[in-house]
Write a structure and sequence with these properties.
The structure is a single chain. By secondary structure, the protein is mostly helical. It is built from 14 helices and 3 strands. It has a 3-stranded antiparallel β-sheet. Helix 1 (about 5-15) runs antiparallel to helix 2 (about 20-35). The longest helix has 19 residues, at about 65-80. It is globular and about 65 Å long.
Length: about 280
């Protein structure tokens, strides 16, 4: 089988259908792995038996990874091979439903207290105040910050969607101090040797601050700040529909996870033990 020919065709189809470069890259990677797995066994993708495709998907233990493989190969057969029904009968795995372990307000405060670098404080403040994804943070430009309307414009984020988040006086003050010290160009966050900061650098900053704040019992990663911010908004009584807009979620079901994490909601549930004399 001429794998490179099919990969080239699928790559073009992916660029036409999917706006997200991450989706394109991930799907092409999965389909590339799929085709080379069967390269010397079949002459064309249409000859690969459905049962063999199932076994290839089952090589991965994680339900989420299996579903990712299935989505990619399904799109390959639909768009590029022209066989939309080829794997229709392969079921999606039931996803793991894990709730993120978020940081408390006290832990966030300790991270700010431990932060002595102005740029690092800006990173922490933007992630926590605006519930940003890391890609939104590193792509944020000064022209996106509208002080007259007290908003930050998030441009072409996940799903190629624009949205707006609030800007507050504390954040304006911090950004002003930071600009006066660093004079960053175009992007709010400049790297040491490049115009843009990197995902990895942001992750390292979060881990360093957590370590300085002596937060050792939780796994620290950049997206945890987004989970934490949304959870604290719920706990502060912000309407879930408004939080959905701030986060840029298409479905309210995605946002509803934060009501399950909120300790305010959980603590209001009266235990049946309360009715028992011990």
């Amino acid at each position: 089988m001429d794998c490179r020919k099919w990969i080239e065709k699928y790559s073009i189809d992916c660029r036409l259908k999917y706006n997200s470069e991450n989706t394109q890259s991930n799907y092409i990677s999965q389909v590339t792995s799929f085709l080379f797995h069967f390269e010397n066994k079949y002459r064309e993708p249409k000859e690969i038996p459905t049962e063999k495709i199932k076994l290839w998907i089952l090589e991965k233990n994680s339900p989420n990874t299996r579903n990712h493989r299935l989505c990619a190969v399904k799109s390959f057969y639909e768009m590029t091979v022209g066989m939309p029904c080829k794997i229709d009968k392969i079921p999606f795995s039931k996803k793991d439903k894990k709730l993120p372990i978020v940081l408390s307000q006290d832990e966030i405060q300790r991270m700010f207290n431990a932060c002595t670098n102005k740029k690092h404080k800006v990173i922490l403040a933007l992630l926590y105040s605006c519930s940003l994804r890391v890609s939104e943070l590193i792509n944020l430009k000064w022209v996106h910050i509208d002080r007259s309307r007290m908003i930050i414009n998030i441009i072409q984020s996940k799903g190629k969607k624009d949205r707006q988040v609030g800007l507050n006086d504390k954040l304006i003050g911090l950004l002003t101090e930071y600009w006066n010290e660093y004079h960053p160009k175009e992007y709010v966050l400049n790297g040491q040797n490049s115009l843009q900061y990197s995902n990895r650098s942001v992750g390292e900053v979060m881990k360093q601050l957590a370590s300085k704040a002596r937060i050792n019992n939780k796994r620290i990663y950049t997206h945890l700040l987004r989970h934490t911010s949304a959870t604290h908004l719920v706990e502060n009584g912000v309407d879930i529909a408004l939080i959905q807009k701030l986060l840029g979620h298409s479905s309210p079901k995605t946002t509803a996870i934060y009501t399950h994490i909120s300790h305010n909601h959980i603590s209001k549930i009266q235990s049946p033990l309360q009715q028992i004399n011990l």
